């Protein structure tokens, strides 16, 4: 065999060897991030909705206070809301600052590129027993960056009545969302916008609750996620 032919044969042999090694090589997919879990937050899912109850007061505050009476101390105490298994209500034993409340709904839909998208659906204001529809909520929530795909409601322990109860966390993926959650839990002042995530406080006194639709006795009903 001539020298050029030997070189060609050697090159072909090397290519065959490399091809064989590549064929035998096991392709290992990247590890899937492990989802954290906690009773302190809820990750919103497509098909859900969020019910938001907002007190309406003359002062503009969302904290509803009791009127002083003989049965209560002279200094008003804070009464924000009452939670039951199926209903979200505002305590109406309030001082003269209290006018009524608004109930608004936000839809949680699947995004075409994965994740979820939150959109305002409707709002109804009730004052002195009379209800009327509104085109916009009193206090808009869930104004999130377009890049947000994962959205979480984070509940925090209150250090005082002036502290926030909950925050809306949003990120481009679950990894960034978990990173933001860790930051805000460690330091609430870290709740702000970042390049790949965003954090927004829900004003104290406003109640936001995720709900899902279930079939009960042949009828569809909305019930709390938790």
Structure description:
- The structure is a single chain.
- This protein has 226 residues and is α+β, with helices and mostly antiparallel strands.
- The protein has one domain.
- The chain is 15% helix and 35% strand.
- The chain contains 2 helices and 12 strands; from the N terminus they run H-E-E-E-E-E-E-E-E-E-H-E-E-E.
- The chain has helices at 3-24, 174-186, and strands at 41-43, 49-57, 82-83, 88-89, 98-110, 116-127, 130-134, 150-155, 166-171, 197-202, 207-216, 219-224.
- The chain has a 6-stranded antiparallel beta sheet, with no helix packed on it.
- Strand 6 and strand 7 (130-134) form a beta hairpin.
- The longest helix has 22 residues, at 3-24.
- The chain is globular.
The gist of it:
The protein has 226 residues and is α+β, with helices and mostly antiparallel strands. Helices cover 15% and strands 35% of the residues. It has one domain.
Index terms:
alpha+beta, six-stranded antiparallel β-sheet, 2 helices, 226 residues, four-stranded antiparallel β-sheet
